[in-house]
């Protein structure tokens, strides 16, 4: 059995405990038709079969993986009450748990008293960061790299903030000279530094960007939606380590527990170093009733209703798997780093593939061999399709051809972009599956 039913028994026991907290209430049990519910549930399960196997190590494509059982069960358990973390009344316990989670994430990055909260995901979290950026530096630009997540340009548009892009070097990291040129115009309010770009997993050179603050005045927002948890990994390369070691010096950080934090969607998180930015959120709402004088999370969040279940799940996960360097969770992140390097090395020895940048985290990007850009791109798409027939699921990425040429100087062709293969090796189990993944890649390339 691929799904462990012991989970269900564990859930049942936690529900018994939850129910005991309400045992003084008059008996009340809504009447449901479980035969009908079961029939519909089975129908839904059949529909869900039409998915790629995100939970399996042979899914080595996009940023997808199932939550840890403790997160899944804690989330489910809390749904018997379905708390809403908008206001304290709606989620008394889960709001307290959310505050603990925020404090833990803050201290992982070296911040003692960050202001922050959980939100729907990386997009919402970055929206709040850029909203604050615009309020603090009205009329000034947001700058991010050409490889930053597209959400930054779109959010800037939503917020009517000017947006500009700094160039990247061949490995996908922000080019500091290009950034400095933009800064010298004097109209940049905030620089978005990505630690773990979505496409290739690049880590922007944070120490050098921090150095530019000696000459220019600007805020730094770190988008670590994908890469943030690697802060506690022990097997980062030297450049990535240097970047994460300086993360506490920035103004705001986005980290997505629903990416590497083992959580169900949607669980993003925004953290601000200076709690005073909370004043920007001030609102007078006749609807949110107050049961305490404490700041409640609805007062420092742009979203109103939010799943208290997300906080319960994240709290339970942090309790079981604390974010300690050297701990079980950190070691599982190290396995992802090692898996990515191992796959890169196997591909580098193969004449069917051309490896691009050495992975800085757990994302591997590789071109298919070919006579020119057109041929290589076609081969990549064919390998992608053939691998899927052998249950290996990959992703494709369209990269600037110049990035590929840096690693493959003989590459000919006038096209501006090349289609490459991309694998996010997010599951620690991937480390034990590299030989099998590589073998399917080889047979897919040769057939
Ligand atoms: C670096 C980065 N920022 C932001 C996002 C957007 O996050 P979400 O999809 O959770 O809204 C992503 C998603 O992949 C990402 O990788």
Give me the strand/helix succession. HHHHEHEHEHEHEHEEHHEEHEHEH
Structure classification: alpha/beta
Over the alpha carbons, how many angstroms does the gyration radius reach?
A: 23 Å
Helix content: 25-40%
What's the CATH H-level superfamily name of the largest domain? Type I PLP-dependent aspartate aminotransferase-like (Major domain)
Low-pLDDT ranges? none
Q: How many helices in DSSP terms?
A: 14
CATH class of the largest domain: Alpha Beta
Count of DSSP strands: 11
Main sheet characteristics: 7 strands, mixed
End-to-end C-alpha gap: 33 Å
State the shape.
globular
Mean pLDDT: 95
Describe the overall structure.
- The chain folds into two domains: 88-320, Type I PLP-dependent aspartate aminotransferase-like (Major domain) (Aspartate Aminotransferase, domain 2, 3-Layer(aba) Sandwich), CATH 3.40.640.10; 328-446, Alpha-Beta Complex (Aspartate Aminotransferase, domain 1), CATH 3.90.1150.
- 39% of the residues lie in helices and 13% in strands.
- It has 14 helices and eleven strands.
- It has helices at residues 6-20, 34-48, 69-78, 92-108, 122-136, 151-158, 176-183, 206-211, 238-245, 308-320, 328-348, 373-389, 401-407, 434-446; strands at residues 115-119, 141-145, 163-166, 188-194, 219-223, 252-255, 268-272, 353-355, 363-368, 395-400, 417-424.
- The strands form two sheets. A seven-stranded mixed β-sheet has the order 1-7-6-5-4-2-3, with helices on both faces. Strands 8-9-11-10 form a four-stranded antiparallel β-sheet.
- The longest helix is centred in the last third of the chain and has 21 residues, at 328-348.
- Bound molecules: pyridoxal-5'-phosphate.
- Pyridoxal-5'-phosphate (PLP) is lined by residues 63, 121-123, 126, 149, 151, 194, 198, 223, 225-226, 256, 268.
């Amino acid at each position: 059995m691929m799904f462990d039913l012991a989970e269900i028994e564990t859930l049942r026991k936690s529900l018994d405990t939850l129910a005991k907290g309400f045992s003084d209430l008059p008996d009340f049990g809504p009447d449901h038709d479980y035969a009908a519910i079961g029939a519909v549930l089975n129908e839904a399960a059949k529909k869900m079969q039409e998915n790629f196997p995100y939970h399996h190590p042979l899914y080595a494509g996009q940023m997808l993986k199932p939550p840890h059982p403790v997160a899944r069960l804690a989330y489910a358990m809390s749904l018997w009450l379905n708390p809403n973390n908008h206001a304290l009344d709606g989620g008394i316990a889960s709001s307290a748990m959310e505050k603990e989670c925020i404090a833990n994430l803050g201290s992982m990055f070296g911040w003692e008293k960050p202001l922050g909260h959980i939100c729907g995901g990386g997009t919402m979290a970055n929206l709040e960061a850029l909203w604050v950026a615009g309020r603090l530096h009205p009329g000034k630009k947001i700058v991010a790299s050409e490889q930053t997540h597209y959400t930054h340009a779109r959010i800037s548009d939503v917020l009517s903030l000017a947006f500009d892009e700094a160039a990247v070097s061949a490995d996908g990291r922000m080019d500091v000279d290009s950034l400095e040129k933009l800064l010298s115009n004097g109209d940049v309010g905030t620089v978005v530094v990505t630690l773990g770009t979505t496409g290739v997993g690049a880590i922007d050179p944070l120490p050098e960007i921090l150095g530019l603050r000696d000459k220019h005045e600007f805020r730094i927002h770190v988008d670590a939606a994908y890469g943030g948890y690697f802060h506690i990994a022990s097997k980062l390369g030297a450049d990535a380590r240097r970047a994460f070691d300086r993360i506490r010096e920035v103004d705001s950080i986005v980290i997505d527990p629903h990416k590497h934090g083992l959580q169900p969607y949607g669980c993003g998180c925004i953290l601000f170093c200076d709690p005073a930015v909370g004043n920007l959120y001030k609102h007078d709402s006749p609807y949110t009733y107050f049961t305490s004088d404490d700041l409640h999370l609805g007062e420092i969040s742009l979203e109103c209703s939010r799943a208290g279940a997300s906080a319960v799940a994240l709290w339970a996960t942090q309790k079981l798997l604390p974010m300690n360097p050297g701990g079980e969770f950190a070691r599982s992140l190290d396995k992802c780093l090692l898996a990515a390097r191992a796959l890169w090395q196997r591909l580098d020895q193969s004449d069917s593939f051309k490896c691009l940048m050495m992975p800085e985290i757990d994302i591997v990007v590789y071109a298919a061999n070919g006579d020119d850009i057109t041929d290589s791109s076609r081969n990549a798409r064919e390998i992608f399709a053939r691998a899927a027939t052998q249950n290996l699921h990959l992703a494709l990425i369209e990269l600037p051809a110049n990035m590929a040429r840096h690693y493959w100087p003989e590459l000919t062709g006038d096209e501006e972009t090349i289609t490459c293969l991309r694998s996010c090796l997010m599951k620690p189990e991937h480390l034990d599956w590299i030989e099998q993944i590589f073998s399917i890649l080889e047979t897919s390339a040769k057939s």
